[in-house]
Amino acid sequence: MADRQIMLDTETTGLDYRLGDRVIEIGCVELVGRKQTQKVFHQYLNPDREIDPGAQAVHGISSEFLADKPRFNEVARDFVEFIRGAELVIHNAGFDVGFLNNELALAGLPPLEEVCSGVLDTLKMARELRPGKKNSLDALCNEYSIDNSGRTFHGALLDAQLLAEVYLWLTRGQDSLLMELDAPADSASFEFSAGTRPILRVLRASEDELAAHAKVLQEINKESKGKCLWMAQEAPAAEAS
After folding, report:
1. Who has greater pLDDT, 227 or 129?
2. Pairing of strands 23-32, 35-44
3. Which domain holds residue 231?
4. Which strands make up the sheet holding 118-121, listed edge to edge?
5. Which one of 21, 34, 168, 223 counts the least CB within 10 Å of its CB?
6. Cβ contacts of residue 234 below 8 Å, gap of 6+?
């Protein structure tokens, strides 16, 4: 996992850049060490073509609104410098990468793969974690109780901000196994006289805690389709007793 990540989203004139559709909005949100830095890149773009009515119904951006906005090639270098060296995190990455690489090529610039350290697709990640469930950005916001009430229309910057929160939920626990090596560990030293041992307190789980533990294991077992190793270990122990 890269230390610097860019949550990225785009809005476009239509669904296929190979048919001449163009990017009309780019939204980027920076994360460093899994924390938002408040640095963003946000730009509306004049595509020099009409917007498909179906696309406009989704994002609400009109040709009239974009008439005085810059073309992509006018802001391309600023965009490239903002994302340079970072890992891009994108929901349904193939769509955005295809459009952005087309824009970069038209501007005479190298593709994303040569600018960034990699691309992570959160839609693919969500499908692996939540097979058979809806994994749109709205569905994931609902799943993780992320406030998306301001999302009347799709918007690149808003969606990138929501994606940052969704990504942190999807990956919550990846960093729990990492030790902060730069933080001094609390330590304590004990001296015992010869022949003495400290008295160890045994704290046993309450009935409520045991029930909650069992419920979590059942949910893990269900999501993993019967592959929860902890339950597999506990089953022989229960039979032996």
Report:
1. 129
2. antiparallel
3. 207-240
4. 35-44, 23-32, 4-12, 87-90, 118-121
5. 223
6. 217
Closest CA to 111 of 97, 96, 92, 91: 97
Residues 202-234 pLDDT 10s: 677 778 778 777 777 777 777 666 766 666 666
Residues 63 and 147 in one domain: yes
CA 217 to CA 194: how far, in whole Å? 44
Asked if residue 87 lies in contact with residue 4, where contact means CB atoms within 8 angstroms, the answer is yes
Annotated active-site residue 154? The verdict is yes
Q: How far apart are CA 14 and CA 73, in angstroms?
A: 19
What sections of the chain are H helices per DSSP? 53-59, 63-66, 72-83, 93-106, 112-115, 122-129, 137-143, 156-170, 207-223, 229-240
Among the listed residues 42, 59, 91, 154, the single catalytic one is 154
On whether both 16 and 132 belong to a single domain, the answer is: yes
Query: Which uninterrupted H or E stretch holds 26?
Result: strand 23-32
Percent of the chain with pLDDT over 90: 66
